Amino acid sequence: MKSRYLKSTLWGLAALLALWAMYGWWLRPQVKAFLWTGEENMVSRLVAVFYPRFAIERHRFDASYFLFLADQMVLRATVMLLSLGAWLLWQSSRRVRAVAVLPVATHEYFLRYFALVLLIYTYDWCYSFYKLSFFTDFFEPLWLIRPLPGFSLPWLWTLWTVMVLAALRCLWLGRGALLPALLFVVLQAYLYSFGKMDHTFAPFTYVCLLMPWWERQGRIWRKEGRSFGSAEVLQWVRVAIALCYVQAGMEKLLLGGSAWWNAGHLRTFLLVHGQAAGRALAASPDSLLEAASLLVLLWQLAFVGILHRKGRYFFAITGFLFHLANYLFLGVGWWLHTYVWCYPFFFDSLSVVERLARFLKAKTYRQKQ
Amino acid sequence: MLYFLPFVLMRDVYPFFRFSMFATPVSRAAYTERYEWYVRQSRAEKWQLLAPEVIGLDEALFYYRARRANITKQGSAFLAILMEVYRQKREALPAASLLVEKRFKQGQYLDSLVVAQWTRP
Predict the structure, then answer these.
(1) Which of A83, A128, A237, A247 to mutate to test the interface with B (most CBs of B within 10 A)?
(2) What ipTM was assigned to the predicted interfaces of this complex?
(3) What burial letters (b/e) apply to A136-152, b meaning 16+ CB within 10 Å?
(4) Of A10, A147, B39, B40, most Cβ neighbours within 10 A?
């Protein structure tokens, strides 16, 4: 076993060395030539396809910043490959895979909660599409919806209606979440095909992307008549939501480093966003702004602690406060942020939703009687 | 691995997202800007700041499109689209309209520039 680990580790390190050598000797000189002399080469063609915003961003940053970004991509690929390798090694060393088991009824309540959140998020999307219909000059479809019809209200309102009806069905039955999840991803793509992509529903989108596996599990359990099922997909959902915060922290650390918690950084954003509370906070001493920035960075990096039973309440409450502060000082999001709606996925019991479902069912039963 | 693709490539690959909100330190940028839209009902009146929501345009989308239009020298075309929607949604067109860029550096206000202007035909 030990020799196998050694062999895998050596192969992994060799692959990383090859990656760094290829970048350093072959690709990096091309990046430099493109940035400093505007040379037409492979990098310029890649940038035109994958980073069209460069045409805008080059006016705000000097060439050395873009070289730093190119280096970052290789560094990040290295970090990800190392993490993946460590995770695979850890998985193979575990003799018994300990995954929590939950009653199938609890899984159904999670799906009901999913449908409820989807309805809360999207109840006004038909109006959002109507508002955007005045700005079709800006419409630039994302790759996912290019094969689909363009922006037209009858088409989008039909999809929205199907999604809402399917979500209502899921809310009632506790299954059938796949269709509303897929339509949510498609309709969101239409909303974000106007140049600006928001992260308002990012964690929930990851829940949607994992829904095919969750649905498949449920179908198997129902077929086999089981009353308990593995919470593996639910665990993936939780990891995906938690990593949204960790990635935000990692970005700050990797891109900004110590410059990120410089008081001038936060002060600029507070002034640019123009909120009354934000302008007042911008007048605070440097030490306070630096402490606040550092605290946010550490909190985001530590957010993975919400996966631990003991850390759930702490991170859920501080998460709510974090988004509330963003809303008050920067005008970002809403006081009850869309990300906060995803926190109940971290708790095994959705007792409020369970009680509501029981109450509705009991009421229907009484009416039938 | 797909989940981490935006993190490695440092850009959104819908439906996978990159979480870089406010990550780039402002000290690296030449400046940080904000865009504002002003209208004037008549020559005698003062310029009035107009929220893009008045014509149903989300503020974040307005900011992004305004910035893009400014850098690509399409400010006038962008303002013309805004005024056309304004005409469709409201009864009377204002006499004139302005798109203004306000610049900040390290938490200090630098200056304001008129990106584009429009006058009622």
Answers:
(1) A247
(2) 0.85
(3) eebeebbebbeeeeebe
(4) B39
